[in-house]
């Protein structure tokens, strides 16, 4: 458990890891604070957007939609590897998920099968949406996968976490399939290697 990073700490951590960051105007104060707590934080959650196109996806993740106001994540990871920061603080990305999974993340142990949606994940997880249709056919360029690795490692390094603190949305909430197109175990291997 840890207090969340400030906007300055977040930006500096990403840049130290070599990430290419795009600061969307107003991201430092764009959040859902006041609609529930933000922190203590315990991990990083990776999603795919089920969209295509960077600009429209960044707008969607900034604004949200009628049923789910933005920001829908902390950063949007484009196919070219640029990370567009859209929020700092509580964001509507994780939703309800399995409290047993959260306990495994906190303990940095192997994740149990996801069964419940009994815990608010927006309190506990930094969230990154990756531009991908999520149909299993849309490619994941190496630049994008490297950026996913960099953001996950940057946050883990800052908080002193291992790769076990990085999960996919599908490992958190029943019925979710994201991210589709790469293995979370492989991503965690990449993060582990980077953290050495």
From TrEMBL:
It holds the Pfam family Amidase_2. CDD domains: PGRP. Residues 27-180 form the N-acetylmuramoyl-L-alanine amidase domain. This is N-acetylmuramoyl-L-alanine amidase. It comes from Streptomyces stramineus.
């Amino acid at each position: 458990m840890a207090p969340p990073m400030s906007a300055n700490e977040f930006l500096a951590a990403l840049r130290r890891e070599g990430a290419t960051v795009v600061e969307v105007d107003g991201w430092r104060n764009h959040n859902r604070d006041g609609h529930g707590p933000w922190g203590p934080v315990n991990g990083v959650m990776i999603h795919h957007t089920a969209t295509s196109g960077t600009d429209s996806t960044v707008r969607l993740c900034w604004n949200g939609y009628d049923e789910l106001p933005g920001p829908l994540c902390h950063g949007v990871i484009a196919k070219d590897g640029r990370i567009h920061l859209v929020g700092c603080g509580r964001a509507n990305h994780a939703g309800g998920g399995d409290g047993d999974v959260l306990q495994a993340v906190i303990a940095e142990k192997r994740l149990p099968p996801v069964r419940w949606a009994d815990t608010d994940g927006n309190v506990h997880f930094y969230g990154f949406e990756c531009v991908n249709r999520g149909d299993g056919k849309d490619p994941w360029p190496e630049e994008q996968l490297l950026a996913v690795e960099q953001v996950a490692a940057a946050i883990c390094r800052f908080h002193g976490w291992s790769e076990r603190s990085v999960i996919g949305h599908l490992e958190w909430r029943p019925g979710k399939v994201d991210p589709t197109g790469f293995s979370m175990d492989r991503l965690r291997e990449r993060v582990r290697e980077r953290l050495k």
